[in-house]
């Protein structure tokens, strides 16, 4: 292999048979029906159908087995649904993809009906059964995957309809699984109620609570990074780490989603789910194996060790202009920005602040984990002048991991300077396409691998952590501070970071390497 070339396993073999034997995900064949409920909506066109197309294009959805159904109330034909989603799937000028696209679109059928009547779901079931009969002329099982790209308010009725009318009927085996989107509830009570309603209809093994941050390449890398590298094992604790930041920034506002957003706010939209899931992977103990239940057990344990959030460790913000959206009330206190500090009461992390920060309409778009190390004891090089060591995992854009460290400045003088050890994916893995989070997670649902999905008890603890704060915000007891769109957010958030012990390195900026 020449220099600069890297061996990357072909995606069709990324889990070999020994993995399957050891961790119990059974490869299944037979007719596969994927049903996208809410097919007329935003998520379906922007994420679900494009992910399905990419899986199809790469050979993960066998055209001899798979059929895709869209279901929603909007009255449109098969062809109209195809026209709506076509533009989101591919650059049509790409001739190679154009051919795959037209074959893929032919696999899609649309059924229109309400979410709470058996009549619509009977028609859906007939359409699925028709497909199964036509495909199962030879022996095989039937698999039905229901993807709820819908507002959570209709989950209970939709699940009831699926259970009543649309379960897999094959005597030859197979399964029925459902995928549910976030936000799963609005607080502990509503989430538990929703869990109970769905739990009465489906076993936990059939329910896939999706959090798409768990499908991001560098989030998936966290366990490998932490537990397959001797480097990190002795450093990853309160003796060496000063603070941890998990940051999400967007450089655009709520744009057309104001109605939804105002009901939820940034904590429910991003922090309680995406950032908290990332925190689990940073902070959890080593699982006894890679079995999904072992991993999720450890995530639950670390969440249970989080102490109640204190109001003086929270800064909320709302960008100026947010209320201009006609669907947002003029007196809304909904935060579009939040910095909140979580503290983990266990042997590894006592005293280390985990700073979770998320905001819309800020000055940049990025998501990253920033681990700041303590100062060097008995420093003889004046390292503090350069700034602390930091290990940064850039989740997006420009996926990368880099370590900020102090080195001797090249030259005759004995001067020190801050530099970095840099693993930028674009440069290191040239020509390797990083899969979209949804693509990977949908493939997991087909394989029956729940590792990267949120278990019911995990969700419950996640809500336990944030519900008291959310209720105080909802009652107006914690106020959102206005900030300018395109800024860093309220200055009080930077002050909180400083108070928590984060030391910013002034004058240093990491620039992703260019090819
Ligand atoms: N959009 C995004 O980027 C993301 C969305 N999500 C989650 O995915 C789910 C779907 O989101 P999204 O596609 O944006 O939502 P939409 O508002 O686009 O709703 C999806 C479809 O559901 C139906 N619908 C909308 N409102 C109602 C209602 N009140 N009662 C019954 N049916 C309704 C509509 O179909 P019809 O009227 O034809 O039946 C609509 O096309 C939500 O849970 C959301 O939080 C998660 C991450 C990102
Ligand atoms: O779940 C959500 O995520 C998106 C951001 O996703 P990303 O993969 O682009 O980082 C966010 O815009 C949206 O508000 C939220 O609901």
UniProtKB/TrEMBL annotation:
Domain Glucose-6-phosphate dehydrogenase NAD-binding as annotated: residue spans: 35-221
Gene3D superfamilies listed in its UniProt record: Dihydrodipicolinate Reductase, domain 2, NAD(P)-binding Rossmann-like Domain
One Pfam family hit: G6PD_C
Origin: domain of life: Eukaryota
NCBIfam families: zwf
The family this protein is said to belong to: Belongs to the glucose-6-phosphate dehydrogenase family.
Descriptive protein name: Glucose-6-phosphate 1-dehydrogenase
Species name: Arabidopsis thaliana x Arabidopsis arenosa
């Amino acid at each position: 292999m020449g220099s600069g070339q890297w061996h990357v396993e072909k995606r069709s073999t990324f889990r070999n048979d020994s993995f399957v034997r050891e961790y119990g995900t059974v490869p299944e064949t037979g007719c596969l029906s994927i049903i996208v409920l809410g097919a007329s909506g935003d998520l379906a066109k922007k994420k679900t159908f494009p992910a399905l197309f990419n899986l199809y294009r790469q050979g993960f959805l066998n055209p001899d087995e798979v059929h895709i159904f869209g279901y929603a109330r909007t009255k449109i034909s098969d062809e109209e649904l195809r026209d709506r989603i076509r533009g989101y799937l591919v650059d049509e000028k790409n001739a190679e993809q154009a051919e795959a696209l037209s074959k893929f679109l032919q696999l899609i059928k649309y059924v229109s009906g309400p979410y709470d009547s058996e009549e619509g779901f009977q028609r859906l079931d007939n359409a699925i059964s028709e497909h199964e009969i036509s495909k199962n002329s030879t022996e095989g099982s039937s698999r039905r995957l229901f993807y709820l790209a819908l507002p959570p308010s209709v989950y209970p009725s939709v699940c009831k309809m699926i259970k009543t009318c649309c379960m897999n009927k094959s005597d030859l085996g197979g399964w029925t699984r459902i995928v549910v989107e976030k936000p799963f509830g609005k607080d502990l009570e509503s989430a538990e109620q929703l869990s109970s309603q769905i739990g009465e209809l489906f076993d936990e093994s059939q329910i896939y609570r999706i959090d798409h941050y768990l499908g991001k390449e560098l989030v998936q890398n966290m366990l490998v990074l932490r537990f397959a590298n001797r480097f990190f094992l002795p450093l990853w604790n309160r003796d060496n780490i000063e603070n941890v930041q998990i940051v999400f920034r967007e450089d655009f506002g709520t744009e057309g989603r104001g109605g939804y957003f105002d009901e939820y706010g940034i904590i429910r939209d991003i922090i309680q789910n995406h950032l908290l899931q990332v925190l689990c992977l940073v902070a959890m103990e080593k699982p006894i194996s890679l079995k999904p239940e072992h991993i999720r057990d450890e995530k639950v344990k670390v969440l249970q060790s989080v102490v109640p959030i204190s109001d003086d460790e929270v800064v909320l913000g709302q960008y100026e202009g947010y209320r201009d959206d006609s669907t947002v009330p003029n007196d809304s206190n909904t935060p579009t920005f939040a910095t909140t500090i979580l503290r983990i009461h266990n042997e590894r992390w006592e005293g280390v602040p985990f700073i979770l920060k998320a905001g819309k309409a800020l000055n940049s778009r990025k998501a990253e984990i920033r681990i700041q190390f303590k100062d060097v004891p008995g420093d003889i090089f004046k390292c503090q002048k350069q700034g602390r060591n930091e290990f940064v995992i850039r989740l997006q854009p420009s996926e990368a991991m880099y370590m900020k460290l102090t080195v001797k400045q090249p030259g005759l003088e004995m001067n020190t300077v801050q530099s970095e050890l840099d693993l930028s994916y674009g440069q290191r893995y040239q020509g390797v396409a990083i899969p979209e989070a949804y693509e990977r997670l949908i493939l997991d649902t087909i394989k029956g691998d729940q590792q990267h999905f949120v278990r019911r008890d995990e969700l419950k603890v996640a809500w336990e952590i944030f519900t008291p704060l959310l209720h105080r915000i909802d009652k107006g007891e914690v106020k959102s501070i206005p900030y300018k769109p395109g800024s860093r957010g309220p200055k009080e958030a930077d002050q909180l970071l400083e108070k928590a012990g984060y030391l910013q390195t002034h004058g240093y900026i990491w620039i992703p390497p260019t090819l």
